[in-house]
Each structure stands twice: as structure tokens, then as C-alpha cells.
């Protein structure tokens, strides 16, 4: 396993957003993210509500963001959960890499349906990647998304990620896009 770190920040703020660790009050928003058919369209489909509730009950809502680089995206003013963002390492066991050894930084993002179309994922990703660029040496950073997921691909392109290759996984074509972490330095 690649021991290289991701960013250590517990909280990151931007103009409209606070990327923070989860609170118990985020429970309903987190359940919605896992059960909304539109949000889950390219992520294997919605999960049954009862399964998600049992899972959160078992691990505790706040455990969701326990790992470094894992955040809730919240409204800076109201603290309402808009989504989640993760910057962690893509396991070498998975397909889709730009280095021989794998374990590159990988960005994933998920917004509640009501929060789409306002530039919030772009703002959250920019803030997280900037914080990571200030802390970590320059290195590749990946976005892997279903090729059919136009919104996600558009966001990756807007962030400056370049499409590198495509591959099949989970019964669908995936696009691997990459950038250099230090291109996000402020
Ligand atoms: C992928 C996802 C996060 C993209 O959300 P998004 O809101 O489209 O992304 P952005 O933050 O880049 O916002 C772009 C849109 O906001 C608009 N916008 C409004 N104000 C803006 C601002 N201040 N800055 C930038 N864009 C702004 C843009 O014009 C664009 O609008 P469009 O949808 O009409 O093209 C969202 O669709 C989602 O959660 N999907 C389900 C989960 C998923 O598939 N995740 C991918 C796994 S990696």
C-alpha cells in the first residue's frame, strides 16, 4: 500500500463554502446523497434507505469523514450540507493510473441535486486542491468518472484536468483524467 499522505487540513474555507468534518446533523443530507437516483446515476444506482440508515447507525455519522482528505461540503453561512469531497489515494489494485506504481491522489465529489449548477463543486474542489498543493509535493492528481457522466467530466475539464485514457469497469466506460497538483497553487 502507498503510505504517501493526502492533505491534513480538518477544515478549508472558500467564498461560499466550508469543507469540514461531519456532524450528527448531517445525517439526513448524507442519506439523501446515497439514496437519490439522480446523484447515484453513474455511481452504481441509489442505495436502499434502510441499508444506508443501518450503516450510519453502525459506524456513527461522524465516522464518514474520519479519514484525512475526506470532507463534508457545507454552506459557510447556514452550515447546511451540500455534498462531500474526498482527496485520497487511488489504490494500485484498481484500474486507471498514470504512474507505474499507482496510489496517485484522486479527487471525488458529490453534491445534493439542489446544489448542482451553481459552481459549488468547482469551488470546493479548487479550495481542496489548493490546500493540498500548499502542503504536498507536486505529483499527479486523478479524476476517474464514467464517460457518460457529462457534468462530472465538464467539472474536471473546468478544473484543468486532461483526459488521459478510458477503460471498462463496473460495466461501463470510465474516463481517467489527470492534472498536476501544483497547477492548483494559489
Ligand atoms: C458532478 C457534480 C458534482 C457537478 O456539479 P455541478 O454543479 O454541475 O458542477 P460545478 O460546481 O462545476 O458547477 C457548474 C455549473 O454551475 C454554473 N455556475 C453558476 N455559478 C457559477 C460560479 N460562480 N462558478 C462556476 N460555475 C457556476 C455553471 O455555469 C455550470 O452550469 P451548468 O450546469 O448549466 O453547466 C454533480 O453533478 C454531482 O454531484 N453529480 C453526482 C455525483 C457524481 O456523479 N460525482 C462524480 C464522481 S467523481
From TrEMBL:
<feature type="domain" description="N-acetyltransferase">
    <location>
        <begin position="16"/>
        <end position="162"/>
    </location>
</feature>
<dbReference type="InterPro" id="IPR051531">
    <property type="entry name" value="N-acetyltransferase"/>
</dbReference>
<dbReference type="InterPro" id="IPR000182">
    <property type="entry name" value="GNAT_dom"/>
</dbReference>
<dbReference type="InterPro" id="IPR016181">
    <property type="entry name" value="Acyl_CoA_acyltransferase"/>
</dbReference>
<protein>
    <submittedName>
        <fullName>Acetyltransferase</fullName>
    </submittedName>
</protein>
<dbReference type="Pfam" id="PF13302">
    <property type="entry name" value="Acetyltransf_3"/>
</dbReference>
Amino acid at each position: 500500500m502507498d503510505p504517501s499522505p493526502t492533505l491534513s487540513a480538518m477544515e478549508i474555507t472558500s467564498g461560499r463554502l466550508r469543507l469540514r468534518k461531519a456532524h450528527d446533523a448531517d445525517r439526513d443530507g448524507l442519506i439523501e446523497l446515497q439514496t437519490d437516483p439522480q446523484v447515484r446515476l453513474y455511481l452504481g444506482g441509489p442505495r436502499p434507505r434502510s441499508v444506508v440508515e443501518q450503516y450510519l447507525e453502525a459506524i456513527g455519522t461522524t465516522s464518514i469523514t474520519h479519514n484525512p482528505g475526506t470532507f463534508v461540503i457545507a454552506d459557510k453561512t447556514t452550515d447546511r450540507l451540500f455534498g462531500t469531497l474526498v482527496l485520497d489515494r487511488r489504490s494500485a489494485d484498481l484500474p486507471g493510473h498514470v504512474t507505474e506504481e499507482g496510489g496517485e491522489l484522486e479527487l471525488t465529489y458529490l453534491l445534493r441535486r439542489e446544489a448542482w449548477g451553481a459552481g459549488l463543486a468547482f469551488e470546493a474542489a479548487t479550495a481542496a486542491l489548493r490546500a493540498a498543493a500548499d502542503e504536498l509535493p507536486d505529483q499527479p492528481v486523478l479524476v476517474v468518472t464514467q464517460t457518460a457522466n457529462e457534468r462530472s467530466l465538464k467539472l474536471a475539464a473546468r478544473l484543468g484536468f486532461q483526459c488521459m485514457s478510458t477503460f471498462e469497469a463496473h460495466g461501463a466506460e470510465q474516463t481517467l483524467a489527470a492534472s498536476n497538483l501544483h497547477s492548483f497553487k494559489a
